[in-house]
Amino acid sequence: MTPGPTPVPEAVMLEMAKPIIHHRTAQFQEIIKQVEEDLKYVFQTKNDVLIFASSGTGAMEAAVCNLLSAQDTVIVVRTGKFGERWTEICKAYGVKSVDIDIEWGHAADPKIIEDALKKEPNAKAVFVTLCETSTGAEINTKAIADITSKTKAVLVVDAISGLGACQLKTDEWGVDVVVSGSQKGLMIPPGLGFVSVSPKAWELVKQSKSPKYYFDFVASKKALDKTDTPYTPAITLIIGLAKALKMIKEETIEAVWSRHAKMAQATRAAVVAMGLELFAPTAPSAAVTPVKAPAGIDGEQIVKLLKSKYGIWVAGGQAQLKGKVFRIAHLGYMTATDILMTISALEMVLVELGVKIKQGAGIAAAQQELAKK
Ligand SMILES: *Cc1c(COP(=O)(O)O)cnc(C)c1O
Predict the structure, then answer these.
(1) pLDDT 10s digits, 240-256
(2) Is 213 exposed, middle or buried (0-12, 13-18, 19+ CB in 10 A)?
(3) Is the Cβ atom of 160 under 6 angstroms away from ligand 1?
(4) 15 pocket-lining for ligand 1 (C-beta < 6 Å)
């Protein structure tokens, strides 16, 4: 129940257990073709989705060094720890970031972004985080894309934890660049990074002078056009991905979004019914629910007991939230049953820690939400 790495379906593991195949073969080309088609479906785009052998952060770095050059100005909307990463990567490439810091636990008011773009009309990109995994807040991507679409700036969305959980209609909403990773909503182990690139963003790629080699979008696209990869791909992960994408397609992306929304709703209803407080009640995400630790209780203690007593792994707080919150993910290969077990175990842990809760109230609230049609 952590926001990555998330559980890997058995069917995916079995695919990955098969003997390795060679990548310069018709057999692997077939797989690449299918994976590309299905990635476009999950990303909800007609644009190419480039695949790199890296974690999600590698794909974030790839977006920065392919779109921009030193001295370019960009706007970074920082809703938490992962938003700050955009600034750090920009800094590494000499890209000047105008940082907009949003109070943790909240989404950014699109109006703030509109104003920032008016002040910085030369900004080449706006960076946001779809689901800010550190705080659980989800941004209003559609409203932000409405604004960036009318400007020269491209919208770059870190959807590493958001993809396959939070609604994201890349082309319909006008999102230019979507970055993701393999170990969250896509249900496979860590090691793949993804970037979808719109025609507007490709124009920036042509102008970019930043140094790059492995992560060069042009090289990657050139190979992809021949259903190939420039270097040895992470063959086993891509084979696992093919299966995971097939599962998502069979369920349909709309059903995947509503399954996540429902698990999130049940989790929120349950913790509130127990008397606990949500960390991001104004902009809750479908991927992860951070919960404030009850007064006088260290959040890490809750995480530890859930793990040692019940074998349930939730995440603690990051940075300044360490000990103050614990985060329950409902992300990827998870269902109502996982939520019921987690809430039930959480109640037992809280009782053991001497927190005054009405035992059973959380599980009843979760049951009610999960039973809704
Ligand atoms: C997990 C995560 C990252 C980092 O991804 P890695 O795969 O660990 O590099 C970045 N942004 C968000 C929103 C995440 O959830």
Answers:
(1) 999 999 999 999 999 99
(2) exposed
(3) yes
(4) no
